TrEMBL record, chain A:
Region annotation (Disordered) ranges: 466-533
Protein name: Probable U3 small nucleolar RNA-associated protein 7
Record SMART domains: BING4CT, WD40
Top-level taxonomic group: Eukaryota
Cellular component, GO, one term: 90S preribosome
Placement of WD repeats on the sequence: 277-318
GO BP term, example: maturation of SSU-rRNA from tricistronic rRNA transcript (SSU-rRNA, 5.8S rRNA, LSU-rRNA)
Pfam family, one: BING4CT
UniProtKB/TrEMBL annotation, chain B:
Gene: LOC130494510
Taxonomic lineage: Eukaryota, Viridiplantae, Streptophyta, Embryophyta, Tracheophyta
Family: Belongs to the WD repeat DCAF13/WDSOF1 family.
Gene Ontology process terms (BP): maturation of SSU-rRNA from tricistronic rRNA transcript (SSU-rRNA, 5.8S rRNA, LSU-rRNA); protein ubiquitination
Region listing for Disordered, in residue ranges: 418-438
Sof1-like protein domain mapped to chain residues: 361-447
CDD domains: WD40
Stored PANTHER family: DDB1- AND CUL4-ASSOCIATED FACTOR 13, U3 SMALL NUCLEOLAR RNA U3 SNORNA ASSOCIATED PROTEIN
Record-linked Gene3D superfamilies: YVTN repeat-like/Quinoprotein amine dehydrogenase
Record InterPro entries: Sof1, WD40/YVTN_repeat-like_dom_sf, WD40_PAC1, WD40_repeat_CS, WD40_repeat_dom_sf, WD40_rpt, WD_repeat_DCAF13/WDSOF1
Protein name: DDB1- and CUL4-associated factor 13
Pfam family, one: Sof1
WD repeat start-end pairs: 62-104, 105-146, 285-316, 328-369
GO cellular component term, pick one: small-subunit processome
Amino acid sequence: MEVALEDNNLMENILPPDEQEIDVELEAKEKKYLRGEGANLESLKDKKLKTQLASREKLYGKSAKAAAKIEKWLLPASAGYLETDGLEKTWRIKQTDIAKEVDILSSRNQYDIVLPDFGPYKLDFTASGRHMLAGGRKGHLALVDMMNMNLIREIHVRETVRDVAFLHNDQFFAAAQKKYAYIYGRDGTELHCLKERGPVARLRFLKNHFLLASVNKIGQLHYQDVTYGDMVASIRTGKGRTDVMEVNPYNGVVALGHSGGTVTMWKPTSQAPLVQMQCHPGPVSSVAFHPNGHLMATSGKERKVKIWDLRKFEEVQTIHGFHAKTLSFSQKGLLAAGTGSFVQVLGDGSGNYSRYMSHSMVKGYQVEKVMFRPYEDVLGIGHSMGWSSVLIPGSGEPNFDSWVANPFETSKQRREKEVHLLLDKLPPETIMLDPSKIGAMRPSRRKDKPTRGEIEAEKEVAVEAAKGVEMKKKTKGRNKPSKRTKKKKEMVENAKKTFPGEEQGNVAGKKRRIGEVDAAELPASLKRFARKN
Amino acid sequence: MRIKTISRSVDEFTRERSQDLQRVFHNFDPSLRPMEKAVEYQRALTAAKLEKIFARPFVGAMDGHRDGISCMAKNPNYLKGIFSASMDGDIRLWDIATRRTVCQFPGHQGAVRGLTVSTDGNVLVSCGIDSTVRLWNVPRPSLEDSDLSSEKSAEPSAVYVCKNALLAVDHQFEGELFATAGAQIDIWNHNRSQPVHSFKPGNDSVISVRFNPGEPDILAVSSNDRRMIIYDIRMSSAAREIRMQTKTNSIAWNPMEPMNFTGANEDGNCYSFDGRKNEEAKCVHKDHVSAVMDIDFSPTGREFVTGSYDRSVRIFPYNGGHSREIYHTKRMQRVFCVKYSSDATYVISGSDDTNLRLWKAKASEQLGVILPREQKKHEYNEAVKNRYKHLPEIKRIVRHRHLPKPIYKAIAESRAVNNAKKRKDDRRKASSAPGTIVTKPLRTRRIINEREVE
């Protein structure tokens, strides 16, 4: 039946597609590469600048056109799909049916690895999807090369492992163990013990910034720069214990889900959250971010999965019916939700999250984590009896860019890439809700009085500076510790003091005479004394 | 049911043999590159810092002269050689690559004031304050020159005597005529011992001459009575003249836009004019603090180099008001002449301390053979730095130059003086009837008058 269908397609393709159709298609693609609107040059009076900018805008248009053409004609692979005809529904199709239709390389990606002794497994993939790290709750860590299904290294740490995460490539990984978090090398040697963080519940790595973010059992958020080991920020969230933490890949912001149903977003340079959203009436079970940064999925214990638009902070869609313990978005925007021993994949091309596929496992296999493998149509499921991998056609990005993430990397390429990643390491100040603001000019303001927010920020900076100043070591018995601490406290107190002119509310005017005050402000008994104009 | 999944076969995506190049695949989708703007900014910052690290503009000094350098000349046909003449009459031909004298041309008594080379590169013309014009045969570079110990010396092929001291000389770009400047402007032919033509612009001496690279019969002169005059040899009198408030020490035509010329003025600014329209300067290039002594355009026509009495050499963009680069050394005293090399890579300055100095035009450029990958990386760094160079962090790094103390102080002082003047003028204007006080734009302020002579 499939062969006959193919023939029909061939007949259609012999007729050349209309030129206009190609143009329309290319224009739609071009928009993506233009990355926003062109500049408005009408208001410029400087002719030299206008011509220079106009020629540059033209160049941008040309390069967007070229990129659109490359995407249409030159990319080596095309995306996967699953199409049913007639009454068959896509979510009734089982993995066994798919296995019959798909080629042998893909069918090798469907398997169950049964490891019943070591507890529910958490998974992590490297950015290229080539390596996978599996961490069992009872202390089993395994590093696997997915291309050849090669077990590179497995170690048993003999204590609870709550979460695992790769650092920038497969050479280093971090495991959150019972009391502290540890960093291991690829061959399993323990490299660092991260004592400062305490008992870590979740670990995530921010790739562009080389920051290892973690939330611990007390609810503190820690950011550490793994290139030189400095703790960049430790933030007391003030919202209690949580183990729901995710990183938004678009802007590097960390989202925590709390037991009151709020989701808060954090950046390392501020002690207060950027955003607080009330998402669910009960505790938030898991959070996931779409790779384009505009969509967030949250699930609560009241058996709802909600999709939020992060530009307006509004709910886009609610999916009823099940309590998703874990959520994950794929590169193409499909959402996988795992509950009990059942995994459901939602989504279609256009952003409406309806049922697409599902996979139910044996009753005893409780799903612990779902994660899509990058650049492949594969969903990795970590569960209480090991881990499985299932095929979800249309979930992965078919064309990788060798300079971004290369699944076929040689060791030389990997070393080069590491150096380039380090050169491009972003400082933690670049984490913000809207990353396109970087490089934009702020309109210069006249020297107004600083707003309250700015005064607070300045005070914070001054306090930090006062805390960090080096005290001079005095000799001849004048270097008593009590005196030193007193002096340091005094400096910090001085920094916290405000200047009398800066406090807005307190710049009270001179006492105004009763007659000068507006009649409307006066109480009724004094109205006769108001000055009549 | 129709299904397709991504399946990559390893041989399609890896190379077959170890002699092959590695396969590289591109996908320009912006969604694969989160935070690309921040990464680009970071790369721009790194590129700006690297540029400063690699900025070593001084290549070497050529020393041998025994008195201050008065003028230099480029050979249009031979890239490696440059002629220089000093205040004691010593003319030398230097090989820039080895920085040694190839040939000496003794003969002048007194300072040599002008040097120029004919179009075919065979004849060197020099003139000096001993009122003579000497023509020399330029020696052809041959294999014997590799023996560096021998310094040849040549005899002049012709000596022509004039009535007055000569101050400048320049050769036509295409043709057999050259012009000398002194008490008047004389047009000579190589073979005639008397000038073919003469122009007398006034009672004051003419201090510099320059032929137009595009029109072989047009030349620009600057005289001591603060005028810049454009002559056409075929006519009997001047075509146009501009009178400024201070005299112009040197004029250079833009080789790529031959209707534009730039004059190096005594007040420290350079004024670019459109030769067809002289009412206002096209651009005023301000950065020197003392008189600008010499100016030369790059063969690309996009930049020019100036040497000034304040002991510095600056490179300006052809249409920009401020210099891109400043070169200075403790040992370099007053700079009297500068030349931009014909391949647009080097700048040669001749100064009062008897040395010619060779500098790179782009201070952080990698010289020599560059691999295509390196070239691409340099271009990328340049482009990404230019995209963000207006932002404060990067602007601070890119703009930063170490200035010698006298120049730094002079700039601060002039800035204070100008600010005070401007404040006063603004207040005067604000408190007078609108329209009574008119501020002249800088482009016209320094021009006294200009006229077209019929």
